[in-house]
Write a structure and sequence with these properties.
The complex is a heterodimer.
Chain A: H1 2-12, H2 23-34, H3 37-70, H4 72-85, H5 94-101, H6 105-130, H7 133-141, H8 146-184, H9 190-199, H10 204-233
Chain B: H1 8-36, H2 44-56, H3 67-99, H4 102-117, H5 124-131, H6 135-159, H7 163-171, H8 176-213, H9 219-228, H10 232-268
Classes of the chains: A mainly alpha, B mainly alpha.
Chain lengths: ~240, ~270
């Protein structure tokens, strides 16, 4: 419905066509781009960078979150620093990261991993603080040690929160990968493709098609995590805040 | 998130503790950077000096603000707040309507899910082609990014309104618009506020990102200049500024939220 309206409005010529292409033109551009080797390589580069970043973030943030969440004094100490760092966009660390890592995909991967690590860390620490005291007391009275309690009592309770945080983390990582490509360029990536073939020559159909691709990637990732969440909510209903 | 329910005394103690830790970290950072003396990692004292030089060494007639501060920080804040408010108002309005209309939500569901999945910076090339370089690029990016979290939160809030309240208002013959404004809106406020808070943090990020490529002034633009000319202490100064602004905005928002929701809780409960 909306697409039809858009098509009609754009063809009616109220606004110059170059500034407002009908969806059919965007679809044509999209199909052409998807058949283009250049674009596919860029897309794969972005997707790979994104997946590696999310993977790295999970590897670092999950153990770190479990550790921080289990030791309250450490939690408050690190909390202050985290609170200050959180509002700073990951992309602002680019100049410093690129010094350490040199120019290459490593920089955008590390930046995205950095951005993705925060929501995971934060949610796990928060969820650990919310575990029902009764469960822990019961486990303790059965003679379970601290590590056993952490792994067998607290961890299952934390899983639903962790999955939600993964969804947010994946969104953040995609945002950072694409913005780094747009702002700082590099060898490959859809952000670089969009600037080179779309923005610089003012091709609105190409940049819109690129945005659609980014939206589809984000949408698919959201769907995967929602499905995972639904699966786990069956045994642990916990709507994270 | 749990801050609202904590007693004031504990809140103060918590704040003191946090600041003490923060100061401790600054000291460690100072010691480490002074010891290693790396050009890329200036000491906090150097950064603070740079911040003073960049922004606060102006004439007394301008409240000691420099032209750099007036011509960059002020427009950035303006864009941030304008984008946040426009996006927020749109999100709240749409959310209230959609939250009360099953059919409307079914129609909009696909667009909402797609819109919130689309990373706002991916639209930067689109906005750059449409608006060239300037404030409209920042506004469009921020508005697009901010609408979705506010919209989704408002929908949740509007859906959670007690049916009895709505029915009572209907019995008294309240018009649908009046019902939205006088019954649904107040009841959805807690959710709306949490959406607006997420949106505020997002606005700051999107303001900076969009200024990196699509502006001729502003915090992001100055940051980009500093990093291109390898003025590392200036790079750090702008990063610190964004951190301070982010915390300040968040704190101001919490103050306003506590006031507004305090009255709300009193009137509801």
């Amino acid at each position: 419905m909306l697409l039809l309206g858009w098509e009609g409005f754009s063809r009616s010529g109220v606004i110059a066509r170059e500034y407002f292409p009908p969806p059919s033109e965007v679809v044509v551009a999209l199909v052409r781009m998807l058949g283009e080797r250049e674009f596919l390589l860029d897309l794969v580069a972005t997707l790979l960078a994104w997946l590696i970043a999310v993977g790295l973030a999970v590897l670092v943030a999950v153990p770190a979150g479990l550790l921080l969440g289990s030791i309250p004094p450490v939690r408050t100490a690190v909390g202050a620093v985290i609170e200050f760092l959180r509002p700073i966009p990951a992309i602002m660390w680019f100049p410093l990261f690129s010094v350490i890592l040199m120019d290459g995909p490593e920089t955008k991967i590390m930046l995205a991993a950095y951005a993705a690590a925060w929501p995971i860390l934060f949610n796990i620490v928060y969820a650990l603080g919310e575990v029902e005291r009764g469960y822990i007391e019961t486990a303790r009275s059965f003679g379970l040690g601290r590590l056993a309690i952490l792994l067998r009592v607290k961890l299952p309770d934390v899983v639903p929160f962790a999955i939600t945080s993964l969804r947010i983390a994946a969104t953040f990582a995609l945002l950072v990968v694409v913005s780094t490509e747009l702002v700082f360029g590099g060898d490959r990536g859809i952000g670089i493709y969009l600037i080179r073939y779309g923005e610089e020559s003012g091709r609105l159909d190409i940049v819109l098609a690129g945005a659609v691709v980014a939206g589809v990637v984000g949408y698919l990732s959201n769907s995967v995590f929602s499905a995972l969440q639904r699966k786990f909510v069956m045994w642990a209903p916990g709507e994270p805040r | 998130m749990t801050g609202r329910t904590e007693a004031p005394a504990r809140l103060v103690a918590g704040a003191v503790q946090r600041w003490a830790v923060f100061a401790g970290c600054l000291l460690v950072w100072q010691a480490l950077t002074a010891y290693f003396d790396d050009t890329y990692f200036p000491t906090p004292v150097e950064i603070a000096g740079k911040m003073h030089e960049l922004w606060f060494s102006g004439p007394a007639s301008h409240l000691f603000l420099t032209t750099v501060a007036i011509e960059n920080i002020v427009p950035s804040l303006g864009r941030l707040l304008a984008g946040w408010l426009i996006g927020g108002a749109t999100g709240v309005t749409l959310g209230l309507v959609l939250g009360r209309s099953r059919a409307g939500l079914d129609y909009a569901d696909a667009i909402i899910n797609f819109g919130r999945a689309l990373p706002a910076p991916a639209l930067l090339p689109v906005f750059l082609v449409l608006f060239k370089i300037g404030t409209p690029v920042q506004l469009a990016t921020i508005v697009f990014g901010v609408i979705w979290p506010v919209l989704l939160n408002t929908v949740q809030g509007a859906q959670s309104v007690e049916p009895v309240m709505v029915d009572t208002a209907r019995v008294y013959g309240t018009s649908p618009t009046r019902l939205l404004v006088t019954v649904v809106l107040p009841a959805s406020l807690p959710k709306i506020f949490s959406g607006m808070r997420i949106a505020l943090g997002l606005s700051l990020v999107l303001m900076v990102i969009s200024e990196l490529v699509g502006a001729t002034n502003g915090i992001g633009y100055q940051f980009q200049l500093a990093s291109q000319s390898f003025d590392l202490s200036a790079v750090w100064a702008w990063i610190a500024l964004v951190g301070i602004l982010g915390n300040l905005l968040n704190w101001l928002f919490l103050v306003v939220e506590n006031r507004a929701l305090g009255r709300h809780r009193a009137s509801v409960g």
